[in-house]
């Protein structure tokens, strides 16, 4: 009997990540074969996919981590745009680039901590907290910037490291953004699966009362996870400005739900306590592939959300089905 | 089994607790001797859980003193309680269902190597050892707790106490949602704790579950201690009369 349980547990773990992987592979192959002149796998397009897609995906990693500990962050796009605005202002004030980037990331961290503190201190659902901060930070960014796009060309300042760091190509080929996506995924994966803090994240999301009773400071765990999301937003704000050489008040719009979608597609539970960094990584990649693939296929942009919807529903239904099957065997 | 002359492990003196306008504990004295098993009984809302949550650091008393091994102590968090050697097994909320057995046993106190990386080998081996000590043989420490039976889950929670060399284990309604067979399983775990010389507080409103294993009974009602009797001086009938009477008396 135990034998059978073990076998199934294994299978479940495998199937969770592998069903996401199948979706990703099918989509990639589909786009590769069906796109005109196989343009999807053209090196230029792959480079675009990896640099643009990674910006979103880096933030999605943090959102997934946060969801494992049982919280949401709808304010990522707004934190991002607020950080971009901070970057712009400091850049215009001719602060050295290193300090511009550092401050931008610290501001991101601070906004994350604010989300966390409001959520845990006032015991408000983070869905509501971050709905509020989502509107507030974007509102302030719009107010201060007048809703304009403004040039912010970092290359006008002599700096050896800044641009290569955020937008360079490793070996002349591989985009730096994708490198950072992998680095953050590996780092957060180690944190979540191998570090004691990861066990606290899981415990907090899975059963907060138990975690508290076992002496885990669940408020601190949650606040740190919010902060991680904020740091990633600040980092991506820098990377985005480095790539586009301009500030736009629409940066990060719509990312909040795409990030939740990436996590859910990757097998993260909306109730917390369940999810893996591999799954979140693949989920984020899947969202980026869909977005890029549809453009390459010359399918009108509006279809993107239809496909997102289908992929989300498919992955949630299939993981529910798997869970149900599993429970039946146990009983 | 005569322990009234034994060494005092815990003494709670004149404990008062308010929740807003609810006077939950009205000056309760409570003590446990080393190696002793106390059945804490009473109806719902009698104050049993509140008293115990003060001892395990989940709540703080508004007034009163706690002595542990003769020393006055301040228990202001679950962490403080665990440092003293007080482990609590809560009825349902003791475990994280989706986490593995090993990760549950070591929750909050993971064995780590450098930089806080969990030492899985130690964690898994120690988990299996602790479970085996309880007579519980589970196939793998990697199984998520959700796949275990109710009795096995309590076993995991109790193994946690055993592993961390608890001096006092508090079991808060450990048999509440269990089948008859599983109740017997849990009682067997408690007997193992007794053999190890660990003090146990067994909270229940099912007197018969506690009767076999406890040596002394404390009856609570409406935030007060109504009775404190040794098993040899009482009977299950008398105790249940006490519980019912004290619930209605004023």
Concise description?
Chain A is mainly α.
What order do the helices and strands come in, and which of them pair?
The complex is a heterodimer of chains A (331) and B (250).
Chain A: H1 2-34, H2 43-68, H3 76-92, H4 97-122, H5 126-145, E1 150-151, H6 162-167, E2 169-170, E3 174-175, H7 176-193, H8 196-206, H9 208-213, H10 218-244, E4 246-247, H11 255-265, H12 277-296, H13 303-330
Antiparallel strand pairs in A: 1-4, 2-3
Helix pairs in contact in A: 1-12, 1-13, 2-7, 2-8, 2-10, 2-11, 2-12, 3-4, 3-5, 3-10, 4-5, 4-10, 7-8, 8-10, 11-12, 11-13, 12-13
Chain B: E1 8-19, E2 22-33, E3 37-41, H1 48-55, E4 63-68, E5 71-73, H2 78-84, E6 86-89, H3 101-105, H4 120-133, H5 150-163, E7 168-172, H6 180-195, E8 199-204, H7 207-211, E9 216-221, E10 224-230, H8 236-248
Parallel strand pairs in B: 3-8, 3-9, 6-7, 7-8
Antiparallel strand pairs in B: 1-2, 1-4, 4-5, 9-10
Helix pairs in contact in B: 4-5, 5-6
Protein name (chain A): Autoinducer 2 import system permease protein LsrD
Subunit structure (chain A): The complex is composed of two ATP-binding proteins (LsrA), two transmembrane proteins (LsrC and LsrD) and a solute-binding protein (LsrB).
GO molecular function, one term (chain A): transmembrane transporter activity
Q: How is the CATH topology of chain A named?
A: ABC transporter involved in vitamin B12 uptake, BtuC
Order of SSEs of chain B: EEEHEEHEHHHEHEHEEH
What shape does the CA trace of chain B take? globular
Q: What is the spatial order of strands in the main beta sheet of chain B?
A: 6-7-8-3-9-10
**First and last CA, distance of chain A:** 11 Å
Percent of sequence in beta strands of chain A = under 5%
Rg for CA atoms of chain A: 20 Å
**Largest interchain contact:** A-B, 29 and 33 residues
Using the 3D structure, state the CATH architecture of one domain in chain B.
3-Layer(aba) Sandwich
Question: Which whole number gives the mean pLDDT of chain B?
Answer: 85
- In DSSP terms (H or I, runs of 4 or more residues), the helix count of chain B works out at 8
């Amino acid at each position: 009997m135990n034998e059978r349980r073990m076998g199934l547990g294994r299978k479940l773990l495998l199937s969770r990540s592998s069903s996401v992987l199948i979706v990703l592979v099918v989509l990639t192959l589909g786009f590769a074969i069906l796109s005109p002149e196989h343009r999807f796998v053209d090196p230029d397009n792959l480079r675009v996919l990896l640099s643009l897609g990674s910006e979103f995906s880096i933030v999605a990693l943090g959102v997934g981590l946060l969801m494992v500990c049982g919280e949401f962050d709808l304010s990522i796009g707004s934190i991002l745009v607020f950080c971009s605005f901070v970057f712009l202002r400091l850049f215009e004030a001719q602060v050295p680039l290193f300090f511009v980037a550092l401050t931008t990331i610290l501001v991101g961290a601070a906004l994350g901590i604010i989300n966390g503190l409001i959520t845990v201190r006032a015991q408000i659902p983070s869905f509501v907290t971050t709905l509020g901060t989502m509107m507030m930070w974007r509102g302030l960014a719009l107010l201060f910037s007048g809703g304009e796009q403004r040039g912010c060309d970092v290359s006008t300042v002599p700096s050896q490291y800044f641009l290569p760091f955020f937008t360079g190509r490793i070996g002349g080929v591989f985009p730096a953004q994708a490198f950072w996506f992998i680095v953050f995924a590996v780092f957060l994966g180690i944190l979540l699966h191998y570090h004691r803090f990861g066990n606290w994240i899981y415990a907090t999301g899975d059963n907060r009362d138990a975690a508290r009773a076992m002496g885990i400071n669940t408020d601190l765990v949650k606040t740190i996870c919010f902060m991680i999301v904020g740091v990633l937003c600040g980092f991506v704000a820098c990377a985005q400005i480095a790539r586009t050489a301009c500030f736009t008040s629409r940066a990060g719009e719509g990312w909040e739900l795409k990030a939740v979608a990436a996590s859910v597609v990757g097998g993260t539970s909306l109730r917390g306590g369940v999810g893996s960094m591999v799954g979140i990584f693949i989920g984020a990649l899947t969202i980026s592939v869909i977005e890029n693939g549809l453009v390459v296929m010359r399918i009108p942009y509006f279809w993107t959300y239809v496909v997102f919807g289908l992929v989300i529903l498919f992955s949630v239904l299939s993981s529910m089905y798997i869970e149900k099957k599993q429970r039946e065997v146990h009983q | 089994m005569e322990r009234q002359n034994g060494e005092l492990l815990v003494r709670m003196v004149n404990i008062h607790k308010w929740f807003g306008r609810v006077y939950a504990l009205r000056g309760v004295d409570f003590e446990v001797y080393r190696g002793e098993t106390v059945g804490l009984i009473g109806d719902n809302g009698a104050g049993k859980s509140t008293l115990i949550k003060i001892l395990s650091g989940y709540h703080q008393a508004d007034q009163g003193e706690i002595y542990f091994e003769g020393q006055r102590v301040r228990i202001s968090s679950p962490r403080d309680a665990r440092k003293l050697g007080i482990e609590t097994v809560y009825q349902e909320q003791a475990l994280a269902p989706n986490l593995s057995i090993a990760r549950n046993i070591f929750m909050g106190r993971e064995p780590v190597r450098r930089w806080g990386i969990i030492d899985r080998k130690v964690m898994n081996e120690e988990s299996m050892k602790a479970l085996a000590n309880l007579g519980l043989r589970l196939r793998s420490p990697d199984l998520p707790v959700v796949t275990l039976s109710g009795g096995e889950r309590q076993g995991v929670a109790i193994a946690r106490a055993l592993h961390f060399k608890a001096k006092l284990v508090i079991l808060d309604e450990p048999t509440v949602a269990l089948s008859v067979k599983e109740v017997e399983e849990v009682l067997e775990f408690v007997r193992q704790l007794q053999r190890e010389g660990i003090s146990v507080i067994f909270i229940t409103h099912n007197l018969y579950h506690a009767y076999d294993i406890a040596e002394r009974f404390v009856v609570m009602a409406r935030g007060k201690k109504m009775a404190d009797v040794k098993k040899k001086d009482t009977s299950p009938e008398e105790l249940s009369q006490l519980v019912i009477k004290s619930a209605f008396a004023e």
